[in-house]
User: Fold this.
Amino acid sequence: MNKDLDYIFPDPPEGVDPRALDPERIPESVAIIMDGNGRGAKKRALNRLKGHKAGIEAVREAIRCASDLGVRYLTIYSFSTENWKRSTEEVTGIMNLLRSYLSNCVERASKDGLRIRVIGDRSALDADIVEMLEHAERETAKFDKLDFTIALNYGGRDELRRTMTKLAKQVQEGTLAPEAITEDVIAKHLDTADLPDPDLLIRTSGELRLSNYLIWQLAYAEFYFTDTLWPDFDKESLKEAIRYYNGRERRFGGVK
Ligand code: IPE
Ligand code: IPE
Ligand code: MG
Assistant:
């Protein structure tokens, strides 16, 4: 936890465990920028791909813990539209890890009641991966314990660009009036159309930036940054983030 932020925790009422989470204030929707896999590997003198592998284990743990704590929607940034800039070796390695994750995710999801969704532009992904994603989405659509969304080849600006193209086509065809483009209409055409906006954004590894993640949806989220590297992010780390969230007063532009 960032020590500079200690001031945001109000004193708990007498007899209340200051470390306990407020069950009434568990964020319904949590978005994570899981950053620091490469540095996690470097710290252990391993190659970057080992870091991504450890990152997948941390994702599994985050899913379990989020679900146990009562989070309903979890969205993780797994590959950005900018991550293609990395070496072919790293990109291929990440895609292969994804293949291996997807190969048994339906079986695991059915045990955990996990609904898997994917956001981002699939057109640049290999056909077998797209097939596996569609299979996972189809087979887990009936589960409702936790909605787990994977942002893959995702960029907030790219999502807005694709959304604008969709809307422009409707205007061109005469099925949508320009004046009818409300915030709600835009939201309903984003990749996240069926998902609520995140209440809490977590970014690991000490970077204080959005890196093109959910730029529309995070408009009113609470932001939590931690120096912990993603492979080291565990149950306690998630609880710490939610504890931080518990201490925030959300105003949405109003006055309390
Ligand atoms: C995040 O970890 C995972 C992906 C972007 C795929 P990084 O790979 O960015 O790790 P660092 O930032 O280099 O440590
Ligand atoms: C953001 O992390 C993308 C993902 C976690 C998938 P990056 O490591 O790519 O972001 P930058 O380059 O530090 O902004
Ligand atoms: Mg990074």
Observations:
- The beta strands are 29-33, 73-80, 114-119, 146-154, 200-203, 222-225.
- The two ends are 27 Å apart (CA to CA).
- The mean pLDDT is 95.
- Helices lie at 37-43, 48-69, 88-103, 105-112, 127-140, 156-173, 183-189, 235-246.
